[in-house]
Amino acid sequence: MTPLRCTALTALALLPVATIAVAQSTAAPRSDTAARAPQLTAASATVKPGETLTLTGRGFPSNAHLALLAGPHDGDAKRIGGAQTGQRGTFTAKIRIRKNSSAAALIARACFDACNVKASTRFRIVTP
After folding, report:
1. What gap in Å lies between CA 111 and CA 92, rounded to an integer?
2. Is the pLDDT of residue 102 over 90?
3. Stated pTM of the model
4. How far is residue 127's CA from residue 102's CA, in Å, rounded to a whole number?
5. What is the reported pLDDT for 1?
6. Are residues 55 and 40 in contact, defined by beta-carbon separation less than 8 angstroms?
């Protein structure tokens, strides 16, 4: 074998190892990604018809308009309002539950950028 062919074969054999090493060294730390994930919480896990549901979000982009949606776990969500985040990416929204609402287990969602950035929380409407 000529020295040129031998060098080319050695370089090809080393390529996958170098590629893997580069890919591993550029990965973002897992805790950093989790710290930036948007979160949504409901002030109360249950709400009665006619009452107000308070939703609080954090970890969203700053000064962003969000769509607030709610629906059953396995069904279509409907828009229930909107919210504007502040400079820290947080918001608080108060949603009035209709007086004629029936009992249900629902999921509230806060969506930004066509729901590419989102968070959700569960709540229940309970009837007296």
Report:
1. 14
2. yes
3. 0.72
4. 7
5. 54
6. yes
